Amino acid sequence: MAFDAHVLEVMISTPGDTAEEVATVKDALHGWNADRAPGAQTILLPRFWKTDSVPQLSASGGQSVINSQLVDKADLVIALFDSRLGQETDSAVSGTAEEIERASAAGKPVHVYFSDEPIDRSKFDPDEFTRLEKFRTELQSKGLLGVYSGLTDLAYKVRSAVENDLTEMGLGSPSVVRKGEHAQPRVRVEKEREQYQDSKGKMKSRTHAKLVLENKSSSITAEGLVMNVGEQLQHSVIRQNDDPVDLPPLADLRWPLALSFGTPDQVTIELSWTENGEAQSLSQPVTL
After folding, report:
1. In sequence order, which residues have a C-beta less than 8 Å from that of residue 133 and are 6 or more positions away?
2. Which domain CATH number covers 74?
3. Chain centroid to CA 27: how far?
4. Does the reported pTM lie above 0.70?
């Protein structure tokens, strides 16, 4: 069904060593659209120079083309750094740095994230990393920087940043919040069967499982949400940490789940969070 919507251009600004991160951010924005666009009457349009710029000659160079085609038209900017700063331009230490500075000077929301993942030594350039660290130190004086510990963590943080921007813009909130509605954090297990060929050429199958934590409410954020999986699952859920998170409406988090012989068929997972300053909790049986 057709609906009227605000369309916001979200520029992904990054050097050339973050292909997986770019794909993750695009998926996160498309996921937000699938969950929230009709109710929020807002569509997020990812924009990235490799896929969304048009070849064009300019006396000022290629960066000026990207600036005019993408940076100046963007409504908000997501900037990502792994281990490289990128190629220097005429007016900045790198193209990504120039895009950050230009967008910020124009008053656009700019969210900058640095990878906290282990560095791939086969691709590590110490001189480039030194440049990146110097730029990071300089940037810290201009605002709050973010870090991501993995692709799942990055996807969640991007969605949270977008929710914050939309609130600041007066967009994204449902037109009607039903009286008495609450956050609805729930846990489920998602399984996917994969066919593969073993070393002898025989076709076999294996199952990949993920633990999914989602907020099924369409309007209420589960604030400071903590998921306690208990002793039976604590070594099976592959996640970086169990710090509290704010889970926006219709958002989800996913972690690989390593099920093994001896894992029970059902466990009880404890959830706790706050909404409107009041503590909430839930004990949920989950079938594995």
Report:
1. none
2. 3.40.50.10140
3. 8
4. no
